[in-house]
TrEMBL record:
<feature type="region of interest" description="Disordered">
    <location>
        <begin position="515"/>
        <end position="547"/>
    </location>
</feature>
<feature type="compositionally biased region" description="Basic and acidic residues">
    <location>
        <begin position="515"/>
        <end position="529"/>
    </location>
</feature>
<dbReference type="Pfam" id="PF02706">
    <property type="entry name" value="Wzz"/>
</dbReference>
<dbReference type="InterPro" id="IPR003856">
    <property type="entry name" value="LPS_length_determ_N"/>
</dbReference>
<dbReference type="InterPro" id="IPR050445">
    <property type="entry name" value="Bact_polysacc_biosynth/exp"/>
</dbReference>
<keyword id="KW-0472">Membrane</keyword>
<dbReference type="InterPro" id="IPR027417">
    <property type="entry name" value="P-loop_NTPase"/>
</dbReference>
<dbReference type="InterPro" id="IPR005700">
    <property type="entry name" value="EPS_ExoP-like"/>
</dbReference>
<keyword id="KW-0812">Transmembrane</keyword>
<keyword id="KW-0175">Coiled coil</keyword>
<protein>
    <submittedName>
        <fullName>Exopolysaccharide transport family protein</fullName>
    </submittedName>
</protein>
<feature type="transmembrane region" description="Helical">
    <location>
        <begin position="25"/>
        <end position="46"/>
    </location>
</feature>
<keyword id="KW-1133">Transmembrane helix</keyword>
<keyword id="KW-1003">Cell membrane</keyword>
<feature type="coiled-coil region">
    <location>
        <begin position="208"/>
        <end position="265"/>
    </location>
</feature>
<feature type="coiled-coil region">
    <location>
        <begin position="291"/>
        <end position="399"/>
    </location>
</feature>
<feature type="domain" description="Polysaccharide chain length determinant N-terminal">
    <location>
        <begin position="11"/>
        <end position="104"/>
    </location>
</feature>
Length: 746
């Protein structure tokens, strides 16, 4: 039975499965007690080990009074996880362990040097090559390896604390080694700081001497260049030419403004005189005291004329005298205005001359300022160089003073502190007799229970038939008795009589099976009944030969092998009984060493049932309905090396909807097998057209040469299969009567 059949036909009986625990309880309990006893004895006799733990705090230990000037704790980086992990590696480094081993003389203890006291078991393992000889390892390396095996250094979670654990047979030694490692680590950090301070002073002393000389030279260059370039500094930290240029530029602007104002005033007075307009609107005229007095006299005369005009006529001598005086006053005012114009013009000319002089001076200072700027750039560069070197000198001197004071006083605060010294342990951490014994008891009990259940499961005693799997006894598929026909066959077919196909075809024993009886024709049932009711001693009738020139199973197999055909299509117009030809030919070709697969396309599964042990196997209908894959539908023949794809268990109607996939399936099968044998049942030429391909041979299976077979052969030949060959299973093996209740290989 295949795996698919077993999975479909049987189920696990949980009650029977777990009942095996009750049946085997004594064995389970005895094994558990034995294992528990052995674990207890081993734990009791094992050498106890004690573990001591010391803890270090990683952090700054610098006092605010001893810190170098200008520094504080906030400027120092705080160790992160990687920093703490680095300190863990330093603590467990060989240098630290060597110091502790030397201080405590661990090389004199057998616990750390196996060569001092090697056990008999260890010597045997060395002799047989299962263990390296410790003598070949240097003594120092042996001690370090032993210490590494017993040492555990780790960072305490979510803290900057480091725990140092050491295990030993001697509790006092375990505590001493843990504390010794912590002390050696702190001492190494202190020594490292002292060495760093000494190296710093050795480096800074010559550097300071060199910097002092460099600063002196740089400042001398600055002074010499300033004296050579005659750069005099004015106000606002600017050179003198630049400052003078700024002042002259301001004076030039003022003179230009004054000249423009004088020219504008003279022009306004001149226009007023030329146009005969009033001079009262001119600011320069109004500001003249003489003109103001003349204006006052003019007003007074006009007032007198007005008073006298009320009593005297215009030609009166007195009025005429006053008008004459008034005309003289207007001339005097205009003369004074002309003087003002001449004064303003002279002022404008003076401003113009001053402006020209200032412009010449500004141009001269511009050239001087440009030269002073270039020299100032060079001077600034020299000054910056001197300042940088002086700052570096001051920094080095401050660092040197701080480091030198720490070196002289041998002050080296270490960023680590021993917060908990290791105490001598009173209880061993190994072995824990209770937990070891309990774990051994639980593990042995669980393993014994699992082993018992697996043994019961694999033995098959916990299996029962699956619900819904129905099997009935197989009835013998009997072949009809051969009747004698006129001789038209080949001579080597003479004397062969019919026997149920495959009764001893493959030479295998007949398998018991519970499958439903195939649907057969009434004529076949009558022939089978006649064979069963015939007397044992009654001779069978002589078979008669066919008149259609059919070949037997051996000839058909030889034909397929010789032609190298990839497909063999069998049509059985007489129904299920004739399907034996496809089965026998497939087995014959398989026995010849070729890879053969039989595809059963009959409606009743007549070709695949004799090759399998159940009708519940998935087959071609499951593949077409997409309910299974190739690996699920291909099964081995029980009586040969051939493979078979049965009809299957899927809905035929649903499967036939995907009949267009048959050519693809056939192509895949011909790629994997040397020969694919297809039993099509009573199909016609159109029905087998999807199955035909390159290297295809078409056979017509027959039992009797009647009109039904003849008509089927003629139709196939007329519809494109002229090379049709007839094959019959009759006479494949000597006739015999199948044993009741058993099935032939076919």
């Amino acid at each position: 039975m295949s795996v698919q059949s077993a999975a479909a036909d049987v189920d696990v009986d949980l009650r029977q499965l777990f009942a095996s625990l009750a049946r085997n309880w004594l064995r389970i309990v005895l094994v558990t007690l034995v294992v528990t006893g052995l674990a207890f004895a081993l734990a009791w006799l094992a050498t106890p080990y004690y573990k001591a733990t010391a803890k270090l705090e990683i952090g700054s230990r610098e006092s605010e009074y001893t810190r170098p000037p200008g520094t504080n704790d906030d400027e120092k980086p705080i160790l992160d996880e990687q920093g703490v992990a680095t300190q863990v590696q330093i603590i467990s480094s060989p240098d630290i362990l060597k110091q502790v081993a030397t201080k405590l003389n661990l090389d004199k203890l057998p616990e750390f040097d196996e060569t001092l006291k090697m056990s008999a078991l260890g010597r045997v393992l060395v002799l047989v090559g299962l263990k390296s000889d410790p003598v070949d390892i240097p003594p120092e390396e042996r001690v370090l390896n032993a210490m590494h095996d017993k040492l555990n250094v780790y960072a305490v979670e979510k803290t900057r604390a480091i725990a140092i654990e050491f295990a030993s047979k001697d509790p006092k030694l375990a505590a001493a080694i843990a504390n010794g490692i912590a002390d050696a680590y702190i001492a190494s950090k202190s020594d490292a700081k002292l060495e760093s301070n000494a190296a710093a002073t050795d480096f800074l002393a010559p550097e300071i001497a060199d910097l002092q000389n460099k600063v002196k030279d740089a400042e001398a260059k600055v002074a010499a260049f300033r004296a050579q370039s005659d750069l005099l500094m004015g106000g606002n930290n600017a050179v003198l030419p630049t400052q003078q240029l700024a002042e002259l530029s301001s004076e030039l602007s003022r003179v230009r403004a004054s000249r423009a104002a004088a020219e504008a005033s003279a022009e306004s007075v001149r226009r007023a005189l030329q146009n005969g307009g009033s001079l009262d609107s001119v600011p320069e005229v109004l500001s003249s005291d003489l003109i103001q007095r003349l204006r006052e006299r003019q007003v007074e005369l006009r007032a007198n004329i007005a008073d006298l005009s009320t009593t005297l006529l215009d030609n009166h001598p007195r009025i005429r005298a006053l008008k004459s005086q008034l005309a003289d006053l207007d001339g005097q005012i205009r003369n004074e205005a002309q003087k003002i114009i001449r004064g303003l013009s002279a002022q404008a000319q003076t401003a113009k001359a001053r402006e020209d002089q200032l412009i010449a001076d500004v141009n001269t200072l511009k050239a001087a300022s440009a030269r002073a700027g270039e020299q100032q750039v060079q001077l600034d560069a020299l000054q910056r160089d001197a300042n940088v070197q002086r700052q570096q000198l001051e920094s080095y001197m401050a660092s040197y003073n701080a480091v030198a004071s720490r070196k002289d006083r041998r002050y080296s605060p270490v960023a680590a502190n021993l917060i908990a010294r290791a105490q001598v342990p009173s209880q061993p951490y190994f072995p824990k007799i209770g937990p070891i014994t309990g774990a051994a008891a639980a593990a042995s009990l669980l393993l014994m229970a699992i082993g018992t259940l697996l043994g019961e499961l694999f033995s098959g005693r916990a299996m029962r038939p699956a619900a819904g799997a129905r099997f009935t006894d197989i009835e013998q598929v009997a072949m009809p008795a051969a009747r004698v026909e006129p001789m038209v066959a080949e001579a080597h077919d003479e004397g062969r009589a019919f026997a149920p196909y495959g009764d001893t075809a493959a030479g295998h024993s007949i398998a018991e099976a519970e499958l439903p009886r195939p649907a057969e024709s009434e004529q076949a049932e009558d022939r089978a009944a006649a064979m069963e009711t015939s007397e044992p001693g009654e001779p069978m009738p002589e078979p008669r030969q066919s008149r259609l020139g059919e070949m037997d199973v051996e000839k058909a197999a030889e034909k397929l092998i010789a032609s190298g055909a990839a497909r063999a299509i069998f049509v059985s117009p007489e129904g299920d009984e004739a399907a034996a030809s496809a089965v026998l030919v497939a087995r014959e070709v398989s026995d010849a060493g070729l890879r053969v697969l039989l595809l059963d396309l009959t409606a009743s599964g007549a070709a695949s049932r004799p090759m399998l042990d159940s009708s519940l196997f998935p087959g071609i209908t499951n593949l077409l309905a997409s309910e299974a894959q190739f690996s699920d539908v291909i099964h081995p023949d029980l009586y040969s090396d051939a493979h078979v794809i049965p009809v299957g268990t899927a809905d035929p109607v649903r499967a036939m909807r995907a009949a267009d996939r048959l050519p693809i399936i056939m192509q895949s099968l011909t790629t994997a097998y040397d020969l694919v044998v297809v039993e099509c049942g009573p199909a016609d030429a159109q029905g087998i057209s999807r199955l035909v391909g390159d290297g295809t041979e078409v056979f017509l299976s027959m039992l009797e040469a009647d009109d039904q077979v003849t008509q089927a052969a003629v139709k196939l030949i007329e519809n494109g299969y002229p090379n049709l060959m007839l094959v019959t299973p009759i006479g494949h093996e000597p006739p015999g009567t199948p044993v009741p209740g058993r099935r032939s290989a076919a």
